């Protein structure tokens, strides 16, 4: 029941995240004015604002001007719902689930904004530090695992420092937005364990590297082309959160 409930909540949150992804890069309010069709400016009716179903009912077109509505909108809603359901499966009914639900929500926003604009907005990343700190502290209090909170602090500093050194060594490779995001993800990963931090941190470079090689081989990029790295950091962190402990244990068993 909790998985189904959070799936439904994820659909609603995903609808709101579409607004955030569109407006934050443009420095617009995410509260006002109400959502409207970007083509004709007509305010979206409430019955046309039901996640996924409204898009299907309208056949992907504005009710007023019949302009096409990108399928990305329902995909973001469905994707957020799936992530929320996975968090429920991973953490169940716990205080920790709140922290990782929050991380999933901002992760969707940051990944899409980075793909669109090659930026990771401070307006989302920086406020997330105190929010995640409070949520992880509540989770430690609820579980009685206070060492996890200290581990999160250390992990955040370590991953932040690692990315900072990379930016200093090769500024063209990534931006300082990646550094700020690294501290956030490092804390979330390390709260779960050192294995999760190691796997999540490494997976970002592995996935980003594979994607870059694919672009080079397909001729869609050259060695001087840049790619947004934030999405791969977030996907790597998701792998670390979901499977990092098991992967790390299996790796140590193989090596040792």
TrEMBL record:
One of the protein's GO biological processes: signal peptide processing
GO molecular function terms attached to this record: aspartic-type endopeptidase activity; methyltransferase activity
Domain Prepilin type IV endopeptidase peptidase: 102-212
KW ATP-binding (keyword) present: no
Main location: membrane
Subcellular localization, as worded in the UniProt entry: Cell inner membrane; Cell membrane
Keyword set, alphabetical order: Cell inner membrane, Cell membrane, Hydrolase, Membrane, Methyltransferase, Multifunctional enzyme, Protease, Transferase, Transmembrane, Transmembrane helix
Transmembrane segments: 6-24, 99-116, 123-142, 148-170, 200-217, 229-251
E.C. numbers: 2.1.1.-, 3.4.23.43
PANTHER family referenced in this protein's UniProt entry, alphabetically: PREPILIN LEADER PEPTIDASE_N-METHYLTRANSFERASE-RELATED (PTHR30487:SF0), TYPE 4 PREPILIN-LIKE PROTEINS LEADER PEPTIDE-PROCESSING ENZYME (PTHR30487)
Purpose of the protein: Plays an essential role in type IV pili and type II pseudopili formation by proteolytically removing the leader sequence from substrate proteins and subsequently monomethylating the alpha-amino group of the newly exposed N-terminal phenylalanine.
Protein name: Prepilin leader peptidase/N-methyltransferase
Source species of the chain: Pengzhenrongella sicca
């Amino acid at each position: 029941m909790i998985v189904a409930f959070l799936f439904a909540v994820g659909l609603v949150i995903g609808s709101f995240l579409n607004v955030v992804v569109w407006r934050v890069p443009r420095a617009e309010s995410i509260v006002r004015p109400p959502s409207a069709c970007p083509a004709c400016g007509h305010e979206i009716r409430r019955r046309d604002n039901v996640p996924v179903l409204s898009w299907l009912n309208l056949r992907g077109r504005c009710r007023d001007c019949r302009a096409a509505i990108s399928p990305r909108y329902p995909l973001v809603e469905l994707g957020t719902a799936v992530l929320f359901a996975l968090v429920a499966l991973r953490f169940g009914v716990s205080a920790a689930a709140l922290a990782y639900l929050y991380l999933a929500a901002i992760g969707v926003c940051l990944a899409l904004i980075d793909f669109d604009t090659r930026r990771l907005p401070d307006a989302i990343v920086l406020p997330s530090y105190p929010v995640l700190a409070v949520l992880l502290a509540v989770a430690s209090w609820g579980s009685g695992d206070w060492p996890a909170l200290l581990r999160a602090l250390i992990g955040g500093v370590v991953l932040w420092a690692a990315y900072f050194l990379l930016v200093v060594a090769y500024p063209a490779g990534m931006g300082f937005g990646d550094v700020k995001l690294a501290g956030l993800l490092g804390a979330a990963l390390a709260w779960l364990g050192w294995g999760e931090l190691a796997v999540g941190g490494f997976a970002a470079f592995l996935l980003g590297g594979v994607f870059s090689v694919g672009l080079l081989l397909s001729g869609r990029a050259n060695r001087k082309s840049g790619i947004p790295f934030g999405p791969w950091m977030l996907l790597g962190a998701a792998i670390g959160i979901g499977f990092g402990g098991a992967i790390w244990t299996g790796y140590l068993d193989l090596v040792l």
